[in-house]
Amino acid sequence: MNGFETIIYEKNGPVARITLNRPQVLNIYNVRMRDELFEALGSVKQDNEVRVLLMTGAGEKAFCAGADLSEFLSAPSPTIARFVRWRRDIWGLFLSLPQPVIAALHGYVFGSGIEMAMCCDIRVAADNCIFGLPEVSLGIIPAAGATQTVPRVIGPGRTLDMFLTGRRVGAEEALQMGLVNRVVPRAGLLPAAEALTEKIAGFDQKAVRIIKQAVIRGIELPLEEGLKLERRLVA
Amino acid sequence: MKDQIVIKRPIPGLVWLTIKGTGRDNTVHDGLAAELETVCSGINLDTDVRAVIISGPEGKPFCKTADTSKKKPSPSLAGPVAGLCCPVIAALNGNLSGRALELALACDIRVASRTARFSFPGITKGTIPTDGGTQRLPRLVGKAKALELLLTGEAVDAAEALRIGLVNRLVKKADLYTVVLEMGKEMAAKATLSLQYCKEAVLKGLDMTLEQGLRLEGDLYYLLHTTEDRTEGIIAFREKRNPVFKGK
């Protein structure tokens, strides 16, 4: 699992950690990062030793400031780009992980940065976080799942306010909206995220995975079906 | 009974609809439904429109719907507005009660004055909302708060409305129209189809499973690859200048 250029993958007992590692460009997401994440997440998914995954960003300034726009006009054609999107379904893979994923967020969390954070299950934010989705100002829309993941967490009203205006939101407002779960001082971010990760890693692994499945699959179902799913998973 | 909507275009791309009723409460009559239907269909056919603002006359309440005790539901006010493809900003002032609140819930972003109040008093008279209130309210504020409002008929003030997500932003009453105009101008500077597809992906996607929603998002995204505005947006960003979108 070594030899990655844009991310660092580490495994420490039951805890895996992926660090977005392009700090010189605010950890922006590019095709290389997509391919490396695809490989790392694929291995996490198969690895029963991994009980919890922690996602974080290297450097002082940003978790991830968005996507690398210099690659945006080089796609061969919309139909081929669409084909590749589903051929290498990075976001589907991310959302399908059986383990809980904790995001430790700091600094700029823009565009793809928010979208990656929303593929995680619990978001811990440093008090210096700034969130924003600038896509509509660029003539595009978020396309790493945010139009679906964000409203499912904060509701359609708050989502449209962020997406359609492109306005920036600080850590406290993000907490108030429910976009993040906890806000901690910048210096305490990694200790807080690691403590949370280790706490969950210490619980019965089967129970932890069942809870995640029951919640994220159940919310897509009518209540009656969700209740049946809960019983079936526990049985 | 006619002409309860005043249409203005403060700048190209932005349409401002003012609901002009009568009296201090800005009371409107059922004719508003047909008028909204006509106006909104027109807006959907007009490719120059990028965003819409809906408000009452400056300084007045958003609107109050005439109390009809008829057995059958009144014609829908929320429906035509919910059918708009472009983003809709509501500027909310005064008491928003019953169908007026249902109309506001059909908009995308709600900006309210600090003195605005919100309620569904139908239950106290033995009726329930029939213009989308029982569906749009829980989708916005969650089941528990929605049931509290609908089952008690009690009003929430602006601060509580902000806290629960019923409105997006609060401003001083005197600043309300300046703030929404500013917001509308910013939106009108963005790419027409990005705004519309973003709204569609969020709202239609919520009625689907996550997996289906992700497919919708992807398809709309790749459809945008065919627009001139996408190329302009990305080139402008790289050249560190403001993009000039054409709606194409």
* CATH architectural grouping of the largest domain in chain A: Alpha-Beta Complex
CATH domain class of the largest domain in chain B: Alpha Beta
Oligomer: heterodimer
- Trace the largest sheet of chain B across and list its strands: 1-2-4-6-8-11
Instruction: Characterize the main sheet of chain B.
Output: 6 strands, mixed
Total strands of chain B: 11
CATH topology of the largest domain in chain A: 2-enoyl-CoA Hydratase, Chain A, domain 1
Content of β-strand of chain A: 15-25%
Stretches of chain B where pLDDT is under 50 for at least 5 consecutive residues are none
Number of helices, where a helix is a run of at least 4 consecutive DSSP H or I residues of chain B: 10
Describe this structure in words.
The complex is a heterodimer of chains A (235) and B (248). Chain A has helices spanning 31-46, 78-87, 90-95, 112-119, 146-165, 171-177, 189-201, 205-218, 223-234; strands spanning 7-12, 15-20, 52-57, 62-64, 101-105, 108-110, 122-126, 130-132, 169-170, 182-184. Chain A has 235 residues and is an alpha/beta fold. Chain A has 2 domains: 7-201, Alpha-Beta Complex (2-enoyl-CoA Hydratase, Chain A, domain 1); 205-234. In chain A, helix 8 runs antiparallel to helix 9. Chain A is globular, with a radius of gyration of 17 Å. Chain B folds into 2 domains: 5-188, 2-enoyl-CoA Hydratase, Chain A, domain 1, CATH 3.90.226.10; 192-238, Lyase 2-enoyl-coa Hydratase, Chain  A, domain 2 (Orthogonal Bundle), CATH 1.10.12. In chain B, the strands form 3 sheets. Chain B has a 6-stranded mixed sheet, sandwiched between helices. Chain B has a 3-stranded mixed sheet with strand order 7-9-10. Chain B has a two-stranded parallel sheet with strand order 3-5. Chain B is built from 10 helices and 11 strands. Chain B has helices at 31-45, 78-82, 99-105, 133-141, 143-152, 158-164, 176-188, 192-205, 210-224, 228-238; strands at residues 5-11, 14-19, 27-28, 51-55, 64-65, 88-92, 95-97, 109-113, 117-119, 156-157, 169-171. The model of chain B has no long low-confidence stretch (mean pLDDT 95). Chain B is globular. At the A-B interface, helix 2, helix 3 and helix 5 of A face helix 4, helix 7, helix 8, helix 9 and helix 10 of B.
